[in-house]
Amino acid sequence: MTYLWKLAGKPSANDTVTFTDVAPGTEYADAVAWAVEQGITSGTSATTFSPDTTCTRGQIVTFLYRNFAE
What is the pTM of this model? Predict the structure, then answer.
């Protein structure tokens, strides 16, 4: 998410992160909040994002599609 967020110009998100495994102030918290707000991802569950899990090719393709498809 951080790469897509930076590519978008580091836009601000209106909401804060609500995932239990994404602490406010971490280097990727703003990126995650923005991605959720944009509908790029909804996390791995209702309460977790799993930031330390490796993305699969399928997830990356999905994130790219959701980010660039209009």
Answer: 0.89
